[in-house]
Amino acid sequence: MSKAYETVIGLEVHVELQTKTKIFCSCKNDFGASANTHTCPVCTGMPGALPVLNRQVVEHALAIGLALNCDITPVTKFDRKNYFYPDNPQNYQISQLYLPIARNGQIQIQVDAGPRIIRIHEMHMEEDAGKLLHDEWDDTSLVDYNRSGVPLVEIVSEPDLRSAEEVIAYLNELRTIIRYLGASDCKLQEGSMRADVNLSVRPVGEASMGTRTEMKNLNSFKAISRAIAGERERQIELLESGNTVIQETRRWDDNKETSYSMRSKEDAQDYRYFPDPDVPPVHIDQVWVQRIKDNQPELRAEKLRRYKKEFDIPEYDARILTETKRMADLFEATSSLCHKPKKVSNWLMVETLRLVKERGLEAEDVNFSPAHLAELIDLVDQGLINGTVAKEVFEHIFDEDVSPREYVEEKGLKSVNDTAALEEIAKEVVAKNPKSVADYQGGKEKALGFLVGQTMKVLKGQGNPGMVNEILRKLLS
């Protein structure tokens, strides 16, 4: 009979920071530029070029460390991590081993089984490597050094995670916190957030750790989930057949849904770390830390607590709205203008997120003004436009940020609220549809809906549905 196994997972999450320039030089820190156009002697490792630390990198790292409940290291230093690879022009990476900027943190995640605390071992600053571009057709590899020297923080968790569900919840929580801080856009598809998964298995109830492997090349939550399931199964099969798991780095191929060995997994001594002589230590006093604390934005957990007290909306709405700072900001600003938080929530959760998905965007890309959404909600409440017209107008607000009042006037979309005019059209519809009239008078309520629809059709969607319904009921009684 086979044993039951427990999965033990620790994550190394690399996050590229949003700064104007790279960590040790003045080259632009922009994604998507032509290959090797944002380079200089420093980030391409030319002899004699000296690095100068970007202060904004330290401030972003401090903000993240504080938000992750970490202890801040008063004197933090940089080290050289030596390895030889084509995307690493210096043959070493400037990183932090001995005195990382933050340690001993934790965050809370929410999974189906309830809340869980995940401990964070450390967070350190470092420079990113270049990017290898492989051309399988020509059997060649080219190097783009634009990414070389891009500032990173690496967040290393303790091995507290036990499933793919917990891993995704942890990554989502990290991403939300970092985006709220404005420290990174955390786009997995662009590589500004990358996760390496350290995974081992052990029989349930056993205290000692199994042999871990590290999986790289994971650029989506779906790929991470599949990689965890695949590696867990591979390790269990090895152990069940009497073999041993080898400590190694593996690359996940999401198309083939399998992993393959890249190299044996290095330990710290393999990189021959030593203090970088060119980058002086960074002294972080309490005044600096307090200034960063004072400038921290309200994070999601705090917003959720406040929304329960301040706005009369369900907890489900609050969770959706606070997933991104952009949506939360839109909700608060619009509600302060029209004082109708539930209606604002509905427009953001339903129509806004629908259009975000249809346009292939992210919530952060939404750029219409709260004033225009508040104006639209007021137009509907005043009966000047109906729900169908409002949805049409909202698409133009979403795409072009038009003034809804001006758009409605220009396109002649105001609702027909003239009772006499509506009665005349309703009488014509009743006269043309005797069967539906008889059905309604015979007790078929659905027939009224048909007659309302026909009346609205004549009105080209610009009738007041409530008034049309009331007038038809009166005529048919």
UniProtKB/TrEMBL annotation:
Which Gene3D superfamilies does the annotation name?
1.10.10.410, GatB domain, N-terminal subdomain (1.10.150.380)
SMART domains for the chain: GatB_Yqey
* Record InterPro entries: Asn/Gln-tRNA_amidoTrfase_suB/E, Asn/Gln-tRNA_Trfase_suB/E_cat, Asn/Gln_amidotransferase, Asn/Gln_tRNA_amidoTrase-B-like, GatB, GatB_C_1, GatB_Yqey_C_2, Gln-tRNA_amidoTrfase_suB_CS
Oligomer and partners? Heterotrimer of A, B and C subunits.
- What is stated as this protein's family in its record? Belongs to the GatB/GatE family. GatB subfamily.
* Physiological role: Allows the formation of correctly charged Asn-tRNA(Asn) or Gln-tRNA(Gln) through the transamidation of misacylated Asp-tRNA(Asn) or Glu-tRNA(Gln) in organisms which lack either or both of asparaginyl-tRNA or glutaminyl-tRNA synthetases. The reaction takes place in the presence of glutamine and ATP through an activated phospho-Asp-tRNA(Asn) or phospho-Glu-tRNA(Gln).
What is the designated name of this protein?
A: Aspartyl/glutamyl-tRNA(Asn/Gln) amidotransferase subunit B
From the UniProt record, report the name of the gene that encodes this protein.
Answer: gatB
